[in-house]
Design a protein that fits this description.
The protein starts with a helix and ends with a helix. It has 14 helices and no strands. With 320 residues, the chain is mostly helical. Helix 6 runs parallel beside helix 9.
């Protein structure tokens, strides 16, 4: 009977080591996020974007609700006060965001979607200026301009001066709309009163489901129910568990270990992993304009990191 005990002890030790390794946690989270658009693109002919988005949050809520239930009770007063803000965040940043992303994957490649999503850190930095009129520091302005040039380069396939809308893929525009929605969501998230993170997740997932439930069942009435294939079942389980729950849990744990600034450096790994995986899994090809646009976005991110580290240094000096 001793070997099973020893094996369990080894497993628990390995799990503890992983839980305390931010590098491993962030790499795994990035891998799970990278596969999300690949899965969405792979099953585009098997399940509608609306159904995939709806069941993603249903599965996520089913897993998180038992863990969050007692915290929801403790946070009920905060929920009463902030229900309008949470409703807007869940509507735009969860329900509508997921639907727009999966809709875009009907029309554009996972490679394009991933490269355009890599601009999210820059847009998140610029969003307070757009929404709240906050001053945009010069280096951040440069990084934002360079990042949007990279976007234009990818969307126009290396011909940014060609302003004809007929030359622009509608899927790329939808992917950009998804980036905008999530960046706005991340910006307004700072205004949410302090509550348990499981309460927040369960609430946002529930609102996301509520956002999609009427159009989802309206679609069922029109087309009738159907038995999902095994591929659809696995796709729904994947997007509902790994990028929705596990990746966010790993990322939040990493932030607790090393802080948001250092963890943010890893936020471009999903693009790297995703583009590399899209080639063998989906048969997609990377063109020269992808490399050029990605280089501009990477340069913009490096500039923004420099500004972020400078501001953190000024904050530490002021506290000192």
């Amino acid at each position: 009977m001793s070997p099973p005990v020893r094996n369990f002890s080894d497993w628990r030790s390995a799990a503890s080591t992983m839980w305390n390794s931010p590098t491993l946690l962030l790499c795994l989270a990035s891998f799970f996020w990278a596969l999300n658009p690949i899965v969405g693109r792979a099953v585009r002919d098997l399940i509608s974007p609306l159904s995939l988005a709806f069941w993603r949050w249903v599965i996520a809520l089913m897993f998180v609700l038992p863990l969050a239930w007692r915290h929801i009770g403790a946070d009920r007063q905060i929920l009463r006060v902030s229900w309008r803000l949470l409703g807007l965040l869940g509507f735009f940043g969860v329900g509508l965001f997921a639907y727009v992303v999966y809709w875009s994957l009907q029309l554009t490649t996972a490679t394009n979607s991933l490269l355009l999503q890599s601009t999210m850190p820059i847009m998140t930095l610029a969003m307070p200026t757009i929404l709240f009129g906050e001053r945009l520091r010069p280096l951040l302005a440069v990084s934002a301009g360079l990042s949007f040039t990279g976007i234009a380069w990818i969307v126009t396939k290396g011909h940014p001066l060609d302003l004809r809308w007929s030359a622009v893929n509608n899927g790329d525009l939808l992917a950009l709309a998804g980036v905008f929605l999530y960046s706005a969501y991340a910006t307004f998230l700072r205004k949410v009163p302090t509550m348990h993170h499981l309460t927040l997740l369960a609430t946002l997932f529930a609102v996301g489901i509520g956002t999609l439930v009427i159009p989802y069942f309206g679609g069922l009435v029109r087309s009738g129910p159907s038995i999902p294939t095994l591929a659809v079942v696995f796709a729904v389980l994947y997007v509902g568990i790994f990028p929705s729950l596990i990746a966010y849990g790993f990322f939040n744990r990493s932030v607790a270990l090393i802080g948001s600034a250092r963890a943010g450096v890893y936020m471009n790994l999903p693009t790297v992993f995703g583009v590399v995986l899209a080639i063998p899994l989906l048969g997609e090809r990377v063109a020269s304009y992808h490399f050029a646009g990605a280089a501009m976005v990477i340069a913009a991110i490096l500039i923004s990191r420099r500004q972020t580290h400078r501001l953190q240094g000024q904050d530490r000096s002021a506290k000192g």
